TrEMBL record:
Annotated Gene3D superfamilies: Band 7 domain (3.30.479.30)
Listed Polar residues bias regions: 355-375
Official protein name in the record: Protein HflK
Alphabetical keyword list: Hydrolase, Membrane, Protease, Transmembrane, Transmembrane helix
Subunit annotation: HflC and HflK may interact to form a multimeric complex.
CDD domains xrefs: SPFH_HflK
Organism lineage string: Bacteria, Pseudomonadati, Pseudomonadota, Gammaproteobacteria, Oceanospirillales
Function: HflC and HflK could encode or regulate a protease.
Family the entry assigns: Belongs to the band 7/mec-2 family. HflK subfamily.
Domain of life: Bacteria
Ranges where the Band domain occurs: 86-246
Membrane topology: Single-pass membrane protein
Length: 398
């Protein structure tokens, strides 16, 4: 029979000990046990476990006090265990603990196993070695009244855990607001072309300096590692027009560079030609002066020699003049004394027929030996013609 089955007699399996209560109830067995009696039995068992006395040997007053004493003992033991667990905490190598005692700053703990007073001390762990990052994306107005969209990345670490945990209510929100303010200030004093092209790094450096000044004045306990402008671009609504403007500027720069390159190639060349002409003119001037001075000195020397032997010098000068004439002409006409016709001397043909050192040397000028031989040939030809002319005249006279 199950313990909760109804019956006329008590069930020995009833855990509530209602073996005899069912007969005393009006409705017979099957009635639920009394709650007060069940509670007393539970207290008796707990008291016996902790060394107390049961409720069967004493009156009701002693039973109640014993039950409550057991509850207090259990609660005290649980409380002691909980306090023991809450009084010990651990900080790793990257953290520092800011201890608040009754809400007031007490100390800063280093890494390791630490103790605190439960319910009195509060520990705020702060990571002081890890590098954290926040991003800012804003649309701002530049100095030349253009709008740009900028994405800013800020990396920082905590240098003062006390200031980071206590001075500012929300450090990261404060950092984001300060970064927006610093960025807006620098962008508002910079032209759009500088932000989008070569001035991006300079802008990031200026934002970092200004932002660090803000954080120091706010006493946030944060130190910036790097500030980087990830992207800077015009708004998407005007991107097509902006691309056209940028292309026009690039064409302008390209044309300027090409013109400068052309000027750099033409101007030095022209200067070189001018310098060469100046040097050639200077050389020609010196050559003419030197030649004139040489001719004057030669004339003075010839004059001195002419005064010593005029006849010899006249013949020498005549021969030199004839030599100069012969070197400049390939045909000579000779007027023979006593004749009616002129004698034609083809010097070029005579030179071809005459073996000379000129043909061997391959030069284009006559040597002195060539001139002498040519002169001898001319004189021979003159004499032969004169003799033939004289013979003809005598025959005609007879």
């Amino acid at each position: 029979m199950a313990w909760n089955e109804p019956g006329g007699k008590g069930n020995p399996n009833d855990p509530w000990g209602n073996n005899n209560r069912g007969n005393n109830n009006r409705g017979g067995g099957g009635q639920p046990p009394d709650l007060d009696e069940a509670l007393k039995q539970l207290l008796d068992k707990l008291n016996s476990m902790f060394g107390g006395k049961g409720s069967g040997g004493g009156n009701n007053k002693d039973n109640g006090s014993g039950g409550f004493g057991g509850l207090f003992a259990i609660a005290g033991a649980i409380l002691i265990v909980l306090l023991g667990f809450n009084s010990v905490y651990t900080l790793d190598e990257t953290e520092r603990g800011v201890v608040l005692r009754l809400g007031e700053y007490s100390a800063t703990e280093n890494p390791g196993l630490r103790f605190k007073i439960p319910m009195v001390d509060q520990v705020i762990p702060v990571n002081t070695t890890g590098v954290r990052e926040v991003e800012v994306k804003e649309r701002m107005l530049t100095e030349d009244e253009n709008i740009v969209e900028i994405e800013l990345s800020v990396q920082y670490r905590v240098s003062d855990p006390v200031a980071y945990a206590l001075r500012v209510e929300s450090p990261e929100r404060t950092l984001v607001a300060a970064a927006e303010s610093a960025l807006r200030h620098e962008v508002g004093s910079t032209e759009m072309d500088q932000i989008l092209t070569v001035g991006r790094n300079l802008l990031a450096d200026q934002v970092q300096l200004r932002l660090q000044d803000y954080l120091d004045r706010y006493q946030t306990g944060m130190v910036l590692n790097t500030v980087n402008i990830k992207d800077a671009r015009p708004p998407s609504q005007v991107k097509a027009s902006f691309d056209d403007v940028q292309k026009a500027k690039q064409d302008k720069d390209r044309f300027i560079s090409e013109s400068e390159a052309y000027a750099n190639s033409v101007v030095p060349e022209a200067r070189g030609r001018a310098q060469r002409q100046l040097e050639e003119a200077s050389a020609y001037k010196e050559q003419v002066i030197a030649r004139a001075e040489g001719q004057a000195a030669r004339f003075n020397d010839l004059l001195a020699e002419y005064r010593k032997a005029p006849k010899v010098m006249r013949e020498r000068l005549y021969i030199d003049a004839i030599s100069d004439v012969y070197t400049q002409s390939s045909k000579v006409l000779v007027d023979v004394d006593g004749g009616n016709n002129m004698m034609y001397l083809p010097l070029d043909q005579l030179m071809k027929a005459m073996p000379s050192s000129q043909a061997a040397s391959g030069s284009g000028q006559l040597t002195s030996s060539d001139i002498s031989r040519l002169t001898d040939q001319v004189l021979e030809e003159v004499r032969s013609r004169q003799s033939s002319t004289t013979t003809t005249t005598r025959r005609e006279g007879r």
